[in-house]
Amino acid sequence: MARRKLVYEGKAKILYEGPEPGTMVQYFKDDATAFNAGKRDVIEGKGVLNNRLSEFFMNGLAGIGVPTHFIRRINMREQLIRAVEIIPLKVVVRNVAAGLMSKRLGIKEGTSLPRPIIEFYYKDDNLGDPLVTEEHVIAFGWASQQDLDDMVALGMRVNDFLSGLMLGVGIKLVDFKIEIGRIWDGDFMRLIVADEISPDSCRLWDIESGQKLDKDVFRCDLGSLSDAYTEVARRLGVMPSNTGHVTKPTLIN
What we know:
28% of the residues lie in helices and 35% in strands. A hairpin with a 2-residue loop joins strand 12 (171-185) and strand 13 (188-194). It has 253 residues and is an alpha+beta fold. It starts with a strand and ends with a strand. It has helices at 46-63, 99-105, 134-139, 145-167, 216-219, 225-236, and strands spanning 3-4, 6-9, 13-17, 23-28, 31-34, 39-42, 70-73, 78-82, 85-96, 112-122, 131-132, 171-185, 188-194, 202-206, 250-251. It folds into two domains: 3-83 and 225-251, 2-Layer Sandwich (Phosphorylase Kinase, domain 1), CATH 3.30.200; 85-206, 2-Layer Sandwich (D-amino Acid Aminotransferase, Chain A, domain 1). It is globular.
């Protein structure tokens, strides 16, 4: 069994030191959380599905020239990724009004937006990840104007890719969240897509029935989260042969 040093544990993933400098191992947990972890459960096989789906999406993005932190999948629950400096912002791209946008602006859920809208949320669980403006981002030094321009460009490219991919299998991409990291090549810094892309970070609705195929199934008690994620994987042709338990690596101090 691998012996690795734990770097960080979040709600849905664990990061370990990688086997080479500049790399990390990302482990996908079965934990499901909602409402800033106010609701939680363990969904058997969820981590396996998210690992395989995120691998599929990251490889697809790399294929169209969008840089990501993904290097390769190690096993059913782990990926080898580039170590990045995460910008403390969630980048949310919305195509259809839903969730917080509907509540905040009084727009009926399901209303198509006139164009994709990008929002920034400051990553802080204690504050509930508040919505912030570009003025906040620049004033507090979280990112520069050039960073913001690059983040918007990355968000739009990811949106174009995911929207077309999902449309082809009868799924509407309502919105999604990505995180962006900085990496350095010598003195040159660039931004890349990091974290994960999975039904945990997207809103996905069946085009014909409107059935939710994302974490809203868990948030709103709409049925089996595992079945919803499995349906997304089935349509995309990403079906792991086994969604059972894979033991975490032994930790070292």
